[in-house]
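User: Batch of two.

Assistant: Item 1 of 2:
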Amino acid sequence: YRLAAGDRVRIPPVRTAPGGSAPPDPERARDLLRRVLHEDDELLVLDKPAGLAVHGGSGVASGLVEILKDAGAGYGGVELAHRLDKETSGCLVLAKSRPALLRLHEALRTGRVDKRYLALVAGAWPGDATVRLALAREGGARAKVVASDGGKAAVSHFRVRERFPGATLLEVRLDTGRMHQIRVHAAASGHAVAGDARYGDHGFNRSLRPTGLRRMFLHAAAIGLPDFGGLRVRAPLPGDLQAVLDALAASCAAPRGK
């Protein structure tokens, strides 16, 4: 969003860890460098691990971008092109120069980026569907996103990939990139994302504990960038999430007792 005359900008207070920034973590940096999915002169695409914030901020001493900048591997100038929630894994694009960053922002703003996610949701999703619900942020530092007629337009396309008893695996394509968009659109449709502590179905989340689910089942599986030579990058489903699907599939195949 480009600021316009009359806009009001709120800058919240920033909490920092005692003693200032955390020291560089060489092992974390090495792990990120092993997760490079694509690199060229303009872009770096990483398979972001779950549990790592994309940048430092309130209560977070350093995030993925700070770790990369401290890694000493020529990434001192990288900048985030977009964001993923801390618990979301998968394709994350960073720009290696200011011109590349501006091109990426323009592509995102005009819908010329193809973002695909995999999400496990509660219940039997009825079929392929498009959800058009405007979204607005409520609250302060820990803002919650709600469906609101006065919010910003948000469009998500949901396609059924696989069905399990009490759950559905969906592929989600986004036309817009609002904060928590998939999570709120899924919950508003009556099928919350598995493991989502904020917008989710707590009973459903508890029922999935035997499968080994320990975080939100949301993965940025692929990203397409037509403006950058038709680049398309995929991130495989992480082992912890694949194990959940395997457990659900096994429960379908298991013979029922008397």
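Item 2 of 2:
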Amino acid sequence: MTEVKNGQSGAATMLRRFVPLAILVGGLAAFFALHLDRYLSLTMLAENRMDLLAWVQRSGALAPVAFVAIYAVAVAISVPGATVLTLAGGFLFGTVLGSIYSVVGATLGAIAVFLAARTALGDVFRARAGPTLRKMEAGFRENAASYLLLLRLVPLFPFWLVNLVPALLGVSFRTYVWTTLVGILPGSAVYTSIGNGLGALVDAGKMPNLNIILSPEILLPLVGLGLLSLLPVAYKKLKARRQGA
């Protein structure tokens, strides 16, 4: 009888561990089922820009809170369209405040993904990892800050994937949070500055280029910052090699 109860308790505990992740996956499914993706488009933002500005004026302090909450939920359920939200932040609140609100919202959403994935999948992933994967995990954890800054700064990796992988590789919560905050700030500043001039662009019959961050003028400095973040890793390896010699 005791074994049955222990088994039921263990199954209930395992089920509870998957609840946060199931909520996020369910939110993503509901997002597309309700066709909410049509609202996260540049065309929709341009067409409703005057109404959005009027709403910000009426709402006062509620507007940035609502924006951060919407951004956080969008990132948590990993919907496409974060770039459009960042543009909206610059358009509605200006470059500086828009960058701050976008980074805060994105970081909160990324934290939700991290905690849900670590709770549901972290132990399972590590338990089934082979020797090669364990070695990679140990190396990643040892230099987690440098690797995460590289992944955040260089916009070549899907945001949802960079949110998920650290949870599976055992990165500490504190390292994950501060590298997310710092790493996404440059890219967010680029898009909010574009969003800040969205009204003038639309009035001139133009639309912003969402691939601008991949242009050499912007991408190369971001890659340079990413490479700088790897200097501690290079130093550790050089020091270890000298000591070994």
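The chain has a mean pLDDT of 82.
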